Amino acid sequence: MLCKLIGVPLQDGASQLGCEMGPSALRTAGLVSALSELGHEVSDLGNLSPASANVPAHPNSALRNLDRISGWIAAIADAAYQASFDGMPIFLGGDHALSAGSVAGLARRAAEEGRPLFVLWLDAHTDFHSLDTTTSGNLHGVPVAYFTGMPGFAPFFPELSHRVDPAHVCMVGIRSVDPAERAAVSQTDITVHDMRAIDEHGIGLLLTEFLERVSAAGGLLHVSLDVDFLDPAVGPAVGTTVPGGATFREAHLVMEMLHDSGLVTSLDLVELNPFLDERGRTATLLVDLTASLMGRKVMDRPTRRY
Fold first, then answer.
1. 124 and which of 42, 221, 228, 259 could share a cystine (Cβ 3.0–4.6 Å)?
2. Which one from 125, 168, 222, 252 is the annotated catalytic residue?
3. Where in the chain are the domains?
4. CATH topology for the 2-293 domain
C-alpha cells in the first residue's frame, strides 16, 4: 500500500502549546521505517501550512484563532482529497482541529467514489461542541460537530461539500464530555462507547459490531486516534489527560483488529505534544500502534484444523 504522510503542525486549536512539534516527533520515532519494513511504499509529503482566511467576527468572544483554524481546515481538506486519490493518507498532528479538515476532504472523495465514509473516533472526548457552545474557545473541541453538518459553522468554517452521516460515526474511549456536548450528541445517531461500555463488554466486541456495519455498507473507514484515548500512564504526551483510558493492550488490539478488517483507508494521529513526553515514549507508542494497524503482528495466528 502507498502510505502518504501529511504533517500538520497545528496547535492553534488547543490551549497548550507544543502540538506543532508532533509531526517531527513521529518522524523521529521511526514512522517511515516502521511502515517500510512492513512492505508499504511511503511518500512523505512534508508539512502543510494554513490557507489564508478572513472570517467575520463571531458572537462567542471565547473563540480562539478562528481565522487561522478556518485556514487550516481549508488546506487540510484539500490535501486529504488529493492524497486519497491513490493512497492512504496518514495525518501527523497537530491538535484534533485537524480532523475537521481531514474528514471533510475524505468525505468529498468518498462521495465521488459513491461509497459512504465511516469514522472511528478514538478519543476521551466527543469533540462535539458548536462555535456557540464552547466556553473554552479551543477549536479542537468542535470537529465532529462540523464534519457531521451540525448548524452554526457557516460562514466561519469552510463550507462542507459533503457531510458525514452521524450514524456512520463511532466513538470509543469516551470519558470526558461537557453537558452541552452530551445534550447535542444525544440528539444524533452517533454511536458512543464510553469506558464503562468497554469495561462491561470488552473493546473487541464493540469494535466488531462497528466494523461489521462498515463492511456491510461497503464503506471507507477513517480512523482518528487522539493520544488521550490512551490512559495517561502509557501515553502521557497530551495536554488533555483524562485518567482511565485505554490500556496498552486494548489499544494494540484495536489496531490489529482494524488491520484484519481490511477496511481502513485513512488515519489521523493527533494531540501528540512532545513537550510533555518522556524521552519520546508516547511518540514511539503511536508509531507502534500505527505499525499494528498496518500489519505488524507479534506472531501469525493461522486457523488450525482439529
1. 228
2. 125
3. 2-293
4. Arginase; Chain A (3.40.800)
Q: In sequence order, which residues have a C-beta less than 8 Å from that of residue 98 and are 6 or more positions away?
A: 8, 10, 13, 72, 76, 91, 143, 268, 270
Task: Give mean pLDDT in consecutive 10-residue pieces for the chain, a chain of 306 residues.
Answer: 98 96 98 97 98 94 97 98 98 98 98 98 98 97 98 97 98 97 97 97 97 98 98 95 96 97 98 96 97 87 52
228 is catalytic: yes
Given the residues 226, 268, 277, 288, the one annotated as active site: 226
Candidates 20, 127, 277, 288; catalytic one = 127
Overall size of the chain counted in residues: 306
Q: Which residue has the cell 462567542?
A: 60
Give residue 301's identity as a one-letter amino acid code.
Answer: R
Active site residue 96: yes
Catalytic residue flag (residue 193)? no
- Catalytic (active site) residue 271: yes
Is 226 catalytic? The answer is yes
Q: Say if residues 92 and 269 touch (Cβ distance below 8 Å).
A: yes
DSSP 8-class letter at 232? T
224, β-bridge pairs: 121, 268
Q: How far is CA 79 from CA 45, 114, 138, 218, in A?
A: 10, 20, 23, 24
- Which of 267-297 are b and which e, b meaning 16 or more Cβ less than 10 Å from the residue's Cβ? bbbbbbbbebbeebebbbbbbbbbbbbbebe
The catalytic residue among 140, 168, 222, 259 is 140
